[in-house]
Amino acid sequence: MKAQTRKILILSAIGLLFYKLVKGSKTMSAKFINFKDVEQAKLQMLEQALINAGLKLPQLNFALAQLLLETGRFTRKSAVSTLNNNYTGIKFLNKPYQIAERGSSVPAAEQDKTRPNAPLNFYAKFKDADAWAKDYVRILSFGAKPIQATTIDDFNLRLQKNKYYGSSPAVYGKILKQFLAMIK
Question: Roughly how many angstroms between the first and final C-alpha of the chain, as a whole number?
Answer without folding.
Answer: 51
